[in-house]
Structures are given as C-alpha cells and as structure tokens.
Amino acid sequence: MSLPRPIKLESTIKQCTAKVKAMADVRKLAMEDTDIIINQFYRNLRSNDEQPLLDDLTVEEKEAFAKKEKELNGEPEMQKLQKLASAHTNGVVTDHVQAVYANGYENGS
Predict the structure, then answer these.
(1) Residue 24 in contact with residue 66, Cβ under 8 Å?
(2) What pLDDT sits at residue 78?
(3) Which of 25, 26, 49, 50 pairs as cysteine with 64 (C-beta 3.0–4.6 A)?
(4) 92-106 tens-digit pLDDT
(5) In whole angstroms, what is the distance from residue 99 CA to residue 59 CA?
(6) d(C-alpha 64, C-alpha 58), whole Å
(7) For residues 33 and 5, what is the distance between their CA atoms, to the nearest angstrom?
C-alpha cells in the first residue's frame, strides 16, 4: 500500500483526539459518530477538499465546534489532550485509528 504523503502517527492521533473531544463538547456522540469523525479526519488528511467531520451538524453546532477547536488549541487544554492521547497510545482508540490508517480510508470506510 503506498501513501501519497507520510503521516506522523502520534501527532495525528493527538489532532484527531482533539477533534473528537471538541465535537463531544458540542453534542452527545454515539460510537458511530466517533467512528465517522475518525474516518473523515483521515480522508481529509489525504484530500485537497476538506469535508465536514459530521454531515448533520446544525449551523449552531458548526459555530460551537469552531469555537471549541480554538479553545482546545490553547496551551493548557492542548497539553491535557496530549497527555490523554499519550496515556491511551496503546488503547482501543489508537488501535482503531491505526486500523483506519492502515485500511479504512482507502477502502472508503
């Protein structure tokens, strides 16, 4: 399998974790929503045309998500997220993200 550009896995997992957290702060997420966010995040890494992480966001949710992302990119919160992502590096989410990285986004999942 050849990839168009390399992905730094650890930093990419941290970015993806931040997006899931920001979305979870905006609205309640089902496991399917989290799966969709992770898959779309990786599709967006490979695409020149970035698509929304979830298709069914209201205007208010989109605005709240953008605001949350800005907050999470602030120094103290980002450090907490980096520690959280590092602590779960061998956890279920990482296993899933690695599976998506290895197989999912190229197969359209």
Answers:
(1) no
(2) 59
(3) 26
(4) 555 666 666 666 555
(5) 32
(6) 10
(7) 27
Distance of CA 6 to the CA centre of its chain: 17
Question: Minimal CA–CA distance to 101: which of 36, 16, 39?
Answer: 39
- What are 4's two structure tokens? 């168009």
pLDDT digits (tens, 9 = 90+) for 1-50: 444 555 567 778 888 888 999 999 999 999 999 999 999 999 998 888 88
Query: Token match 């020149």: residue?
Result: 48
Provide the angle, in degrees to the nearest 10, between the axes of the packed helices 75-87 and 9-26.
Answer: 110
SS3 28: coil
Residue the block writes with tokens 């986004």: 105
How far is Cα of residue 82 from the mean position of the Cα atoms in its chain? 13
Please answer whether residues 85 and 17 qualify as being in contact, where contact means their C-beta atoms are separated by less than 8 angstroms: yes
Q: What Rg value do the Cα atoms of the chain yield, rounded?
A: 14
- Tokens 């208010």 -> residue: 60
* Token duo for residue 37: 């966010």
| Side chain identity, residue 70 | K
